Amino acid sequence: MIGVTLMSKVYIVTDSTADLTEEEVKQFEISIVPMNISIDDENYIDGVTITKEEFKEKMIASAELPKTAQPSIGRFVEVYDELGKNGDSVISIQMMRSISGTVDAARQAADITETNVTVVDSDFTSRSMGMIVKEAAKAAQDGKTIEVILEIIEDAKKRTTLYLTVVNLDNLIKGGRISQLMGMFSNLLNIKLFLQVINGKIEIIQKGRGLKSLQKKYDEIFEQMKSAPKGIQEIGIMHAGLSDFNEGNIARVRELFPDVPLTIVTTSPIIMSHTGVDAMAITYLENK
User: How many Å separate Cα 141 from the centre of its chain?
Assistant: First the structure.
């Protein structure tokens, strides 16, 4: 009997900030390494011992800013060891290094495990990273090599755009990302922030008074999306509360892009802890 040599499989790993749905995780065989959260001296594991909605309610009720932490190196090693036990390989795609040390923990774990692991900084987070992860997972399911999958990831990163609106600055102030004095004046003036992830970093692209300033920027972005040369493959909306303002812009997206797949999710507690209640982000992946 002639022996058959099976090709090794490539597994895709990411962290719980990817904001993927349960169905997507199962369909594309993605392994999720959960982040750690602490609020009011209670410790939780993102998506395991606390849901997004439960976290949001606790965050609203708490006077303190939640504390977040990357998964331990040991947790990554466990996942890598399990996936590689039959000689298979792993590509681990993590949230951008500018806001978390998760990618560093993953790289340290990759040096420890005997599994062949390639760690990638997605340069994004939330659903933006999730869309990139899905592109990689589809390629892995199709039997593509590590080298080809890495090329697909880099291409997907170039086609991904992420915008974020923050309407309540309290968490940014508590977290030290905005000085208390600046925050006090900003809140008094009803300042709202429009942010964009550019080259792996969050940049403020507009400060304005009230929601009208945000709406004007959203309208510009919708026009930009409509003008995408090759069209849009997928849109994601991530939120920390469905305010009337957020609902109105979601309805606008549905109206403008009726044929583009749209996924709406409550964002992960890790992101929510920084952005505060009623923040919303829109991300899109352009067609190749």
Answer: 22
Q: What would you report as the CA-atom Rg of the chain, rounded to the nearest whole angstrom?
A: 20
Region of 118 please: left (phi>0), alpha (psi -120 to 50) or beta.
beta
Alpha helix locations (H) across the chain? Answer: 22-27, 52-61, 73-83, 102-112, 126-141, 146-158, 170-174, 180-188, 210-226, 244-256, 269-275
186/208 Cα distance (integer angstroms): 10
Residue 150's pLDDT is 98
* Burial category of 137 from C-beta neighbours within 10 Å (exposed 0-12, middle 13-18, buried 19 and up): buried
Nearest Cα to Cα of residue 183 among 282, 276, 278, 79:
276
Joined tokens for residue 145: 């090599």
Closest among 80, 73, 197, 34 to 129, alpha carbons compared: 197
Average pLDDT over the chain, rounded to an integer? 89
d(CA 198, CA 223): 19
Cα angle: 177, vertex 280, 252; to 5 degrees: 150
Q: Distance between CA 57 and CA 267 in Å, rounded? A: 13
Q: Is the pLDDT of residue 109 over 70?
A: yes
HSE toward the beta carbon, residue 261, CA cutoff 13 A: 7
Contact 65, 266 (CB under 8 A): no
What is the structure's pLDDT at 176? Answer: 54
Q: Are 86 and 60 in contact (CB under 8 A)?
A: no
DSSP structure class, residue 18: G
Beta strand 116-121 pairing with 262-266: unpaired
Q: What's the pLDDT score for residue 175?
A: 54
**DSSP secondary structure, 212-237, as one string:** HHHHHHHHHHHHHHHT-TT-EEEEEE
